[in-house]
User: Fold these one by one.
Assistant:
Number 1:
Amino acid sequence: RHPFTVNSHGHLEIGGVDAINLANDFGTPLYVYDVSLIRKNARSFVDAFEELGVKAKVAYASKAFSSIAMLQVIQQEGLCLDVVSEGELYTAIEAGFPSERIHMHGNNKSRQELQMAIEQNIGCIVLDNFYEIELLGELLNLQNKEMDVLMRVTPGVNSKTHQYIMTGNEDSKFGFNLKNGQADEAFQLLKKYPSIRFKGLHCHIGSQIFETDRFLSATEILFAELAKWKRNENYTPEVLNLGGGFGIRYTSEEEPIPYEQYVYALVEEVRKQSEEMDIPLPEIWMEPGRAIVGNTGVTLYTIGSMKSIPGIREYISVDGGMTDNLRPALYGAKYEAVVANKADQTPIKEVSVAGKCCESGDMLIWDLPVPEVQTNDVLAVFSTGAYGYSMASHYNRFAKPAVVFVENKKAKLVVKRESYQDVVKNDLSYL
Ligand code: LLP
């Protein structure tokens, strides 16, 4: 069910490397990524478009997990990159990512961020609000430069996911609303800035979505707007960006569909709509984040204290928690795990996995089936590749864990474990 194997010692193997050796060599908590799986996920989107012979761009949403090594792999696979902040853009530049393949998002891009995007000649800015149109127009005029942009719109589609990661509904902080005429107004405003090359529309309906129908409804709504602009303004888009949000498997509750199915369904819908509206087939862009890295990452922890409340529950505590995986505490997200040094043993009981932060809510997994467990066993939590490291914090002054990439049976440290000097490095004395 998770894409990993068990070796003859009964240990979990990640990318052909024994998880217990990884824990011993690099310490815990440790994020481990199977790079061949990252490549496979990335290719499944790209190949599906190629197979259909459709002009497309697949941008990895780097918010899911951004580090220099990660972006190097994404570049090797020929994807584009979606950044949402100066920090993500900076990381991309440090990784040597080709700037023309970078797209920038954000609902409150600062002057400095836009300035940096212009200076770096990035490929596209996804405009989110009126303030930003004026700011970008002004900055481009000042520097006598031009920029490709997309307009982010909210199609008013509910995406059947957690409220915090639902973004395509009408009451959203992101983008221009279609229903109340804001997108029309934005269209008119864009005409005032010849330096802004308006390439088309963007929408992202949410995250961890499993059905294609929501994406199809969003596409239909976007085309209704485009048909109007064609009629009234003789405008036809070159690009249609349908965002990310493709769901992955965390537990047996989720049954993801193969990623190419999204590509097939969307291409078919875009073809159908553009024929009906007599609009030339636009380039189709997508922005998967979680779908590319989510299932490729595993977090290794060492089990420490254990507490049994007879008749109620058994707790086992690990050496990390909400500081390296905020998702259970923030979204009630569920995970599966195995005892990595006993991966061949049959579970005999259930335990609940606690993090070590000073918060009752710092629970990683409730009621996890396990074999007999002991202190110093290694727990491997699956599907932590997306929004784990990227949402890690220093709460309780924890140092951020290391990240290791595994490929072809070799492990390589790609993000160092923070030291306590790192944790206090910006603190200044008051004495
Ligand atoms: N494009 C845009 C404009 C987005 O806002 C997002 C995610 C993506 C693409 C990528 O979505 P993905 O393919 O990864 O689902 N921290 C949350 C997820 C927040 C997603 C925010 N936007 C979580 O851990 O579930």
Number 2:
Amino acid sequence: MTTVSTPTDPTAQPQPSAGGVAPQPVAELRGVEKTYYKPDGSIMVEALKAIDVVINSGEYVAIMGASGSGKSTLMNILGCLDRPTAGQYLLDGVPAESLGDEELSRFRGRKIGFVFQAFNLIPQLTVAQNVEVPLFYQGVDADERRRRSLQKLAMVDLSDRTDHRPRELSGGQQQRVAIARALVTDPVVLMADEPTGNLDSATGNAILDMFGRLHAGGMTILMVTHDDSVAERCERIIRLRDGEVETDRVLRKHHA
Ligand code: ADP
Ligand code: MG
């Protein structure tokens, strides 16, 4: 694996290809800190310390680090589920701090697709209904919801399971439903927290193949993983240590 940057190299971001356009930032962290305080106001944990990271459109990024290094805290900020205690976070060019809580949550719904380790499907709903859920929250009408749901389910090769309940599916199939749900709003970035963590390695590899195809189609993907072999399928690995970026390595450039 070739490393083309050092941890402190400010050129760690992919460069514009010859004759191409400048990279478009999708997610930008500027001096982001997250400090947890005790009830008496004293510092309990500095979970993130002055993080500066830019994720450009079309990148496929793994976030790694030991337990407690700040991965979930970082993902929560990137995913607009939490806010920094200092610094700035811009998603698709918009500073999260400029949005109120409800605006931020709507913005998150439009811009980000989430995939979780435990799939997080709603057991009472059919596969197609599960995929429709994010559109329901956007007020999309029923016909259009169903049309878009079936389109994404075809993409993940589950057209023959649309009326099943999640429990009737294998783990890999359930994760494909979750991927369809994450994509149904046509988000600018797909964020996945240990998406293969609950799957056997063959099934996990099939899910990663799907991520690879989405990436090849231009999707920006951010993934938290503990697994080196998973991370090495990405094109960039950001490694956290004690709330700081320890290394930020570009393994290969993406094809614009
Ligand atoms: P990771 O996901 O890499 O295991 P986390 O982001 O969950 O790490 O945690 C980073 C640090 O912040 C840890 O020391 C953790 O104990 C602390 N932490 C996380 N969430 C909270 C919280 N809600 N309150 C206090 N401390 C927290
Ligand atoms: Mg975590």
Number 3:
Amino acid sequence: GREYDFEKTVTTCPYCGVGCQLELKTRDRKVIEVGSVYREGTPNPYGEACVKGRFGYDFINHPDRLKKPLIKRNGSFEEAEWEEALSMVAERLTEIKDEYGGRALAGLSSAKCTNEENYLMQKFMRAVIGTNSVDHCARLCHASTVAGLVKAFGSGAMTNSIAEIEGSDVIFVIGSNPTENHPVIGSKMKKAQKQGTKLIVADPRQIELSSLAEVAIQHRPGTDVALLNGLIHVIIDEGLADQKFIEERTENYEYLASVVEDYTPEKVEEITGVEAVKIKKAARLYAEADKAAIYFAMGITQHRTGTDNVLSVANLALLTGNVGRESTGVNPLRGQNNVQGACDLGALSNVYPGYQSVEDPEIKEKFARAWETEELSEEVGLTVVEIFKQAGKEIKGLYIIGENPVISDPDQRHIEESLDKLDFLVVEDIFLTETAKFADVVLPAACFAEKEGTFTNTERRIQKVNQAIEPPGEARADWKIISEISTRMGYQMNYDSPAEIMAEIAEVTPIYGGIYADRLGDKGLQWPCKDREDPGTKFLHQGEFARGKGKFHPVTYIPPAEEVDEEYDFIMMTGRMLYHFHTGTMTRNSEPIDKHEPDAYLEINEKDAKKLRIKEGDRVRVTSRRGEVETNVRIGERVQPGQIFMPFHYAESPANRLTNPVLDQDAKIPELKVTAVKIEKV
Ligand code: SF4
């Protein structure tokens, strides 16, 4: 019958960084269902995809998908032919480059694009435009992870693998809510807990995993360094540090020991609000385990002290010898399906693919030869936040692929004003996003189901993306569009396929040296993978750290930039929820998911609600020093008194209109997690 009449394509999930394999069932150029894939050795061997992976595919066939290029004339968009749109982009970029130099242009690449596309985007910006100002949303999520872990270990990625979760004796989850944001990892942790793994959960909110934890800690937002220094203090004080590991494999221990001396559990209790006995209990549990693993996410990274927070996490693991072995490690969970790959392939303003520094003359020489260009610059480029600050000044033109900064970046009004100030903006996306509306030219892109390539998941696994259907209308894959613009600007890019691009990547990127499309098979490969014989790497830093010895970096506690005062008397945290993803471009256009959570909200503690005389469902106005937003109230016990939580997915109540763009000086990541606000009933 008709219901069996469909085709099947196995590919990689477009949502979070777990990288589940999904089976797309298609008929008449449409995805009609998503099925499970049972494959040994993949991140979800039991086919247990979450609600987003299973039901979040309506956006693919959504009627609002962009199908033709758009050119803005007299303030409104008109459909155009590809030929005209591409020529206009190439001409305008060339004009700006000729008049002001390549530094006047910047590009935003995307964690939603394939590895091959990210590689081409940064190659285009560097080899054709002549600037290192190419960046992407990792700047807003894990820039501080990369900065911190490179200093401590020499490599900024998740050290261990998802399959190792079950083998840990203790799992310490800090600033991460896996059951909502990395659901398959969340389920694995719950399963491990049932089998005897002990959980320590530290989060200002009460999250689902807190209820399963041996020790559940609710520290004040932004006090992570104090908390972690407190744990380290107890471990040293009670003689629980791994002296052999410290002597053989680390450096700078004495300095660490002297800095944490001040952080007694009692003092840390004052700063964090966590009882001293709990701090001691958590420290002992973690230090006495044979195999203890740390997992973290944005709760650690999105602070002006993000890099310090990451360094503290690394200090704790080094102190107890919990790195370089199976089921241990320091494991940042990457939010977007290919944010790891976008970083790996050099969509960052300071590094070429494979984290090779743009400031190193030998590296520059290597790329200049490989790419046959004289345009390469040794000057570190601007990052996401800096690009918007310079819009209309140093930056005249911007090329954005698949990102929606109007919703995702801090201080929305400032982002909108910046986009207005540009001489030329081109946006390539699958929908006319809030950001695309500001563009001079909009180019319609293919989504993950409509193209070939690879994504790299949070555990460094490069997996295939397989085409299931044709793109709608005249939409095209980003790698094709970038190549066309480049060729029109006089730099030939004539790739036949993403596999050909991947072979070029392997030539210039040592950690991807053995990654070729024909080797990926059913399970992909985990980097570092040096050559065609290399089977890839399950966990990092075995025997030796990427930087030689692991290095302790003692850090002291610095409070968040904004604290409560008389006027702004609440601390707002932002984050995600299970049913939605990022700026909502995909999930809010997928009815089966959106219907569960169609409306924006804030979470507030019962006690505060009583004080403010607000009830469940009331409309309130939330105001920070940068703007105001109206939303609906949800009352509960998940947040502590004095704190509220707002998801940032909703364009109609954009949490990021309120957030603070103050930056971590090392990583340039803004402090999205701590904003002082006031709340009024409307
Ligand atoms: Fe997709 Fe992540 Fe859900 Fe897996 S856990 S199905 S990768 S969103």
Number 4:
Amino acid sequence: LRHGAMRQTVARQAKKGDLGATLIIDRDTVRDPFPHYERIRAQGRIVRSALTLTTVDHEVTQTVLRSPDFIVSMRMPENAPSLLQALMKVGGSYPLGPAEPPSLLSSDPPDHTRMRKLVTRSFSAKAIAALRGRTEEIATGLLDEMTATAGRNGRRADVIGDYAALLPATVIAEMLGAPTSMREQFLRWGEGGAYSLDMGLTYGQFRRSEKDIDALTDWMLGHFETLRRNPGDDILSSLVQAHDEEEGKLADDELLSIAMLLLAAGFETTVNLIGNGTRLLLEHPDQRARLAAEPELWPNAVEEILRYESPVQRTGRVAGADTEVCGIPVRRGSLIITHLGGANRDPAVFPEPGRFDVAREGADRHVSFSSGIHYCLGAALAKMEGEVGLRALFERFPDMRADGLPELRGTRVLRGYRSLPVRLDRAP
Ligand code: HEM
């Protein structure tokens, strides 16, 4: 009941033209948030809505994300409007959802610094470069399977279910010492888990999310026991060891939280990079032809895909003190929503931001991986997987074309497709 009433109030705010509320509730903005970002941009660098402060400005976004005045642990602003408090708590909280405390995503220094240090090395550029060969092998294997399945299915395939979801899920399963036979199950749990990042859910979405996170938590606790009995050279074996060896290094709930975040981030985000990239290249045959002729452009193309269709559309911070951003005063306790997908279309940084150009100079100035101390730990991994995955797909199927409409996932923070039907052969 409380949930239904809350949604109605947010809906009323949205009807009144409150831009922040609209992005939380309105279905059309899930499908296509970009015109909405432009409405916010036209109103100012920081726009005050009934619930939050909102920005799509590149400089403001970067300043907020890099500033020690803005924190993540004070999730509930002390002086927040009661409606916002209800929104953020709706139906209870998500114990151990990927972004709930003590997640890295919701910890400030010094806890954040201590926890992040335990996993940084496994995701360094050097560590990720060493995984490229294996990622190419996995991609080749999946494309072989996709060819075989499509052969029995009139040359039809679903890029998401048959490929884009499986590639990062297989890589992260191997990195975490989890059996790859679990990857389909991880993906099913991940679908509900992804809702936990959004605000203003329907009751059904909330229940699904809670159930999936519970199931994943149970599995993870069992996995720790397996790794204790039989440690490998994977990341989780070393985390379990760090936890068991030295008291104070990593608490029980911190170990579980990092493990859940790595797993969820591993299979929930890069799928969208590969899926969004596939759709963009199918829609822009000139850009696709350019990559076929100049394959050295692939790394830049991945940056442009990340900029143009950010797989994570937004994040937020709370002002821990009275402060100012780019000359605009912000009161302690204010929640500011930074729309990464909107900042990536800021014409002050990206000329003609609505043009998709795989050779764009400065495409890598996007904020799709955030900025500052929470800058995505998996950025090097995601970019490597995106490049290997997309290039292998388009080189294997040079005649691939869209076959019907893709279906969006329907989540707001994460932007990507649930299915992307294609035909692998040439048009008749
Ligand atoms: C943090 C995006 C892939 C692990 C973040 C944040 C963003 C992001 C925006 C920061 C949120 C904030 O500042 O509030 C992405 C995108 C990806 C991707 C767009 C793929 C295209 C991955 C992968 C992993 C990963 C593959 C690892 C398996 C993490 C972790 C954090 C994080 C652990 C928390 C870092 C911290 O709080 O210190 N990611 N991510 N990400 N990401 Fe990623």
